[in-house]
Amino acid sequence: MAHTHSVIYKVDYYVSFCLSHLFLYLSLKNLINFIIKYFSWFVFIFYVTISCMLLFQNNPYQHHVYLTSANRVCSAVYGVFNNVTSYFHLHEINEDLHNRNALLEMEVINLRNQLNSVKLMLPDSTAAMAASEHGFDFILAHVISNSISQPQNYITINRGSLDGIAPEMGVIDQNGVVGIVNVVGPHSARVISLLNPQFRLSCKVKGSDFFGSLVWDGKDAYHAVLEEMPKHVKFAKGDTIVTSGYSSVFPEGLIVGTIVEQIKDKNDNFFSLRIALSTDFTQLSTVRTIKNNRQAEIMALDENNGKGKEAEK
Q: For a FRET experiment, which of 1, 47, 237, 274 has its CA 20 to 30 Å from that of 27?
């Protein structure tokens, strides 16, 4: 039985050896036939190449034409290569633009705070300006999860406590207000979206001091309602709605949206405005969390005020 297996193995090996050599022979034969068939063309190409080399090397005019043409071809090739590499660097460029935009936005906010301090005409205006500097900082983050069609919508970002994120930090993008940080983990955080009835934002019509409360009515991802606006406030369709600054989360003047129409309020002494949100929640990508450097101080004062009122009672 073992002898039979040995014979079969030798036969298989011999057949495989013969077939491989046969294929090799046919391949070499085809290659030789191909060379013989087009031998004249190979000789022609060889002589043309040698002739061109001699022509361009020994004649100044032809050499100049060759260099000019070669440079033109190289420029076209390098141009295509540069376009391809530039495309792959768009993400880095976009990230840099977001950082620059955020820096400019924070500078505007801090400058506005400094200007407001100067307007108060304090005795020591220099000290007032120094106190208002660096009121807000930002941390850039990317959206990794976002819902817009649920009764209560949330957003998840890829920054957490190790990156400096903390609860009660405001979140904005390049267009306007996005939400407020709710739950924070080491490497990520959950944000209560503006498209969430639990989130109310103090807003006002730009250019006035009358404020109301902005809340999402759940109808779509593009509109919200500004409630509790006094009836004597004058407004026009298209007026800009901004944050009032009456909180430690968002600075004053951040764009929220524009007025679409007036709607009836539950209270006869007030009216409500339907607002077209400036933030496109269907395309959220890069956001910025706002850190108020004096938030702890403000919250401590608010707690003390609450305790004082209780003592009076």
A: 47
**DSSP class of residue 38?**
T
pLDDT confidence of residue 235: 84
> What H or E segment, with its residue span, contains residue 229?
strand 223-230
Alpha-carbon distance of 313 to 129, in angstroms, equals 38
Question: What is the tens place of the pLDDT at every residue in 109-139?
Answer: 777 666 666 654 444 443 333 334 446 788 8
pLDDT at res. 312:
35
According to DSSP, the β-strands at 189-193 and 154-157 are antiparallel
CA distances from 30 to 16, 20, 22, 40, 257 (A): 21, 15, 12, 17, 75
d(CA 141, CA 137): 13
pLDDT digits (tens, 9 = 90+) for 143-187: 999 999 999 999 999 999 999 999 999 999 888 899 999 999 999
CA distance 192 to 197: 10
Does pLDDT of 108 surpass 90? no
Among residues 185, 191, 188, 203, which one has the least CA distance to residue 277? 203
Burial of residue 78 (number of CB atoms within 10 Å: 0-12, 13-18, 19+): exposed
Domains and CATH numbers, the chain: 2-85 (no CATH), 101-134 (no CATH), 136-305 (2.40.10.350)
How far is CA 275 from each of CA 69, 195, 203, 204, 242, rounded to the nearest angstrom?
61, 13, 11, 11, 11
Report the candidate in 200, 202, 181 with the shortest Cα–Cα distance to residue 192.
181
